[in-house]
Specification:
Strand content: 25-35%
Structural class: alpha+beta
Largest sheet: 7 strands, mixed
Number of strands: 7
Strand order of the largest sheet: 1-2-3-4-5-7-6
Helix content: 25-40%
Shape: globular
Order of helices and strands: EHHEEEHEHEE
């Protein structure tokens, strides 16, 4: 009796299999998957998405190197989208602009697919993203804005609160947070 490995094909060659878990920058082709996860994650909580589909495509075309997706068996399960910002604090313009000479990364959104929540994936993805940013010599810090209930999550990830953010979206007010990423 001849037994074959499950990864072997009849000719003895290995079949291609998807990696169990992979982290990579997102591309414009990932925009729909990103939007589906984001929409589900944010609509029920705040009634709106941080980025709409056209804005996701905009940032993934302009600065894909400032995004990171977590894929399991080829399926997007969590992501971060960022862009460069060139001022000390975030303003309304930071929601849509990418400033190529900026030294701060504005993290627009971090979202995890509903079936993968409460497993620590958001923290792991954010940690990997911040480590990645340390490899970019022009990046000095990461900025984000979040609602009050997320402040403790980001503090556990090493962010410090800067105080109320001047950006508002409808009735929503945010806390601005930062993390130093200099090596």
């Amino acid at each position: 009796v001849h037994l074959r490995s499950p990864r072997s094909s009849p000719g003895g060659q290995r079949r291609h299999t998807l990696p169990a878990s992979e982290f990579r920058c997102l591309s414009p082709e990932d925009a729909i998957s990103v939007f589906e996860i984001e929409r589900e994650a944010f609509i029920s909580v705040s009634g709106d998405c941080p980025l709409h589909l056209d804005e996701i495509r905009h940032f993934l075309n302009l600065c894909p190197e400032l995004s990171l997706g977590w894929f399991e068996e080829g399926r997007l399960v969590a992501f971060i989208i960022g862009s460069l910002w060139d001022q000390e604090r975030l303003s309304q313009a930071a929601l849509t602009l990418h400033k190529p000479r900026g030294t701060a990364v504005h993290i627009h959104v971090l979202a995890v697919h509903r079936t993968f929540r409460q497993q620590g994936k958001g923290s792991i993805l954010l940690w990997r993203y911040l480590q990645y940013l340390r490899c970019l010599p022009f990046v000095r810090r990461a900025l984000l804005m979040c609602e009050d209930f997320l402040v403790s999550f980001y503090q556990k990830c090493g962010f410090e609160a800067l105080g109320p953010c001047q950006v508002t979206v409808g009735e929503l007010a945010f806390i601005e947070m930062q993390h130093s990423v200099q090596g």
